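Record type: monomer structure entry
Structure origin: computed from sequence
Chain ID: A
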Amino acid sequence: MANAMTAIAIFVKTPGLSPVKTRLAATLGKDAAESFHLQAANTVAATLSQLSPAAQGYFAVAETEALNHPHWQALPCIAQGDGGLGERLARVYQFLQQRHGAVMLIGADSPQMTLAVLSEGIAWLGGGSQPRLVYGPCTDGGFWLIGGNCAIDERIWTDVSYSRADTGSQLLKHIKHLGEIKHLPTLGDVDEAADLGDLQQALQQLPTPLPEQRQLLDFLASFSFPSPQSW
């Protein structure tokens, strides 16, 4: 019998074992990019922890040898496994969907996500007996969240071309026949240094930021990058 709690998995990579935020590192340097990834991932983990008992958060870790790494102690860890992003998304989704029934997959790069929006997704997936999906688009054409309460064939995940401006539209085209889709608000994510100003602004605009989101704002203040208003 599936666990009634919705599973939410944060996809992460471990500094020192995998290249992390390479485009960000090209501008800010490797250490700063890795620090951002860890700060952002643990901010998202703190947000997920506030959702109990409705949801169970997980770290989906890129490296099997890092499942017990000190960086990833805030949540239970599962392995992404080998292969391209589509294969890894499929593997984590299928594992958690069988365990929980409803699952959402998220990145660590949109730490401005809120309890209210995540709760909206959880309520939607648990709100009926029919197949349902939930989708959170990114400003760059990708997605910050994808989830469902039904099986999604691996081929659907692997037929998508990732890290493109049409990644999200491709995925939506592939899943639209599976069930009714709820669209969550569009969020930015951080790929390059220029995205940090947008994130800073988004965090500043949160009505009730968590302590970890305030700490991330303090961390971002240590960098010098253009504010959105000056572009």
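Annotation 1: Strands lie at 6-12, 55-61, 77-79, 103-107, 132-137, 143-148, 180-183.
Annotation 2: The CA atoms of residues 117 and 184 lie 7 Å apart.
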